[in-house]
Design goal:
The chain contains nine helices and 17 strands. With 295 residues, the chain is an alpha+beta fold. It has two domains: 113 residues, Rossmann fold; 164 residues, Tumour Suppressor Smad4 (Sandwich). Strands 5, 6, 7, 8, 9, 12, 13, 14, 15, 16 and 17 form an eleven-stranded antiparallel β-sheet that branches. A hairpin with a 2-residue loop joins strand 8 and strand 9. Helix 2 packs parallel to helix 3, helix 6 packs across helix 8 and helix 7 runs antiparallel to helix 8. The structure holds adenosine-5'-triphosphate (ATP). The site of adenosine-5'-triphosphate has 22 residues, from helix 3. It holds the Pfam family YegS_C. Its cofactor is Mg(2+). Keywords: ATP-binding, Kinase, Lipid biosynthesis, Lipid metabolism, Magnesium, Metal-binding, Nucleotide-binding, Phospholipid biosynthesis, Phospholipid metabolism, Transferase. InterPro entries: ATP-NAD_kinase_N, Diacylglycerol/lipid_kinase, Diacylglycerol_kinase_cat_dom, Lipid_Phosphate_FormReg, NAD/diacylglycerol_kinase_sf, YegS/DAGK_C.
Amino acid sequence: MYCFIVNKVSGNGRALKIWNKIERILIKKNVLYCVYYTEKPKHATLIVQELINEKCNCIIVVVGGDGTIHEVLNGLIGSNTPLGIIPAGSGNDFSRGLGISLEHDKALDRILNGESKIIDIGIVNSTYFCTVAGIGFDGEVAYVSNQSIFKKIFNLIRIGHLTYIINTIKVLFQFTPADITVVIDKKIYKFQKVWLVAVANLPFYGGGLPICPKAECTDGLFDICIVHGMTKFQFFRILKLVLKGQHMSSPSIKIIKGTELEINSSTPLMIHGDGEIIGRTPAQIRIEPHSLYVF
Ligand SMILES: Nc1ncnc2c1ncn2[C@@H]1O[C@H](COP(=O)(O)OP(=O)(O)OP(=O)(O)O)[C@@H](O)[C@H]1O
């Protein structure tokens, strides 16, 4: 049995339209399914926890974006219930990283006829994430974007990714870098004027930015990208390189692979996981290898 969790507001309403098309295909193919609609933020986690508690022998399928996947993940971990995704958000970075088609019929075909694989996931303090946890500048961008009126307008005209670009520029004028101490697999690193730390299980965030292009979700390791020691203008130039995935060779960018890290900063820095706000530093982050079955 396939249990679909539909976030009608993902992609500013696109998810509901996609679900209507998916439902027609399921009926035509005589597929056994049930559907739950999320009614508020964090509801997806509760729905999944109830399904797991009822010992439903099902495959859970998200029709939504990265935020909905993040909430479902936080109800799913610990069970062996597999997850399918029909991408219907504005960013869809988890799907992009896994190579799931952004076309709904192909994504459904992958779930109905494909094989699941087991992937790593990450945990920040007590919250799981599956794509990237970002600390600092990108945490602020996520915070501002989640409250942005642009997001709704741009989603309506299918240019949702522009939300992140506009809010990136806005936060650029407000953000003050901090000094951090980060312990990665028991080794201590100190960085000054840190703009961001991206802890990546998969390459993309912010609607397709390849912040850690080589991150793989099956290698048991995070790719940790630390952007530090630069002026606003230099950071702006780096952002342009990030758009093309050409930032890796900059001397102000350090990429470290690791399994667990502890971050302390001179001022509290905002943290997001999969684009959803988790809290502020200090933070402990670790990888949980081979923890999620996904189609
Ligand atoms: N019924 C609801 N009303 C309002 N918000 C909801 C409802 N159900 C879920 N949500 C919230 O909607 C938010 C956005 O969902 P989601 O991330 O799937 O879409 P998106 O932001 O368009 O896509 P992406 O994260 O890929 O950019 C989530 O943070 C979730 O908590």
